[in-house]
Amino acid sequence: MIKVRLPSELGHLVQDGVKLECHFAFRDYAHPAPSHWGRLRVLNRIDLEADAAFRLDHESAVEIVTLVLNGTVLALVDGLGDSLLKPGDCHLVSAGDGVALATWKTGGAPASLLQLWLMPEEEGGASEIGLRRDGDRFGHEHVLLASGFPEDDPEEADQGRSGDPLPLKARVRVLRLTLPTGGQAVIPTYADRCVYALVAAGQVEIQGFDAGAGCGVAITGCETVVVHAREPSTLVICDSD
């Protein structure tokens, strides 16, 4: 099964300098929104005006993966410190038993980011944060941002700063593809997995379906996902059970 969701089909929320484009049910965006795709519970594009902030008052039993698309964002997580994020950086909040307050805020310039909320296999545990720096700023074609597969675990002690994937508490992979015009990527998966691809920029053909910037593509029943770029394109892909 393959379903392309156009930007016009998504939820659109605006408040206090924050604009959300929601692929799944979130806050006031409910029926007829889908509730999840596999373990992917939330996928939001968040556009922040200068000096704006997106806040979560209390979340538990969720893994929040944030990827900065452009601009600079300061991520502050109550009790766990703050991180200054630049384009390509990936930030993880593993909420565990609960995070009282988490904030992503801009300074004097606007910024855009993506957030994926993943449902862990086991709830509870201490809250944690992680950070993966991207020194090449979208220069790599195929990047594994975060993973819950043991074979993807980094072995280096400086995990999160050397380009290793951030560790997840679920059998999920989050990837970023950056393709030139005419470029192709083949992503192995399994027929019983749920793959969701967001076209962050550009125009692609994915499994024979056309998808432009802002589209989401829900895929299951495939053992490979093939992407062809019709123009320079960036995609973020979640592969989960």
Automatic annotation (TrEMBL):
Gene3D superfamilies registered for this protein in UniProt: Jelly Rolls
InterPro entries linked to this entry: Pirin, Pirin_N_dom, Quercetinase_C, RmlC-like_jellyroll, RmlC_Cupin_sf
Family membership noted in the UniProt record: Belongs to the pirin family.
Superkingdom of the organism of origin: Bacteria
Protein name (database record): Quercetin 2,3-dioxygenase C-terminal cupin domain-containing protein
Coiled-coil residues: none
A family per Pfam: Pirin
UniProt-listed PANTHER family: QUERCETIN 2,3-DIOXYGENASE (PTHR43212:SF3)
Domain Pirin N-terminal: 16-118
SUPFAM superfamilies: RmlC-like cupins
Domain Quercetin 2,3-dioxygenase C-terminal cupin: 164-238
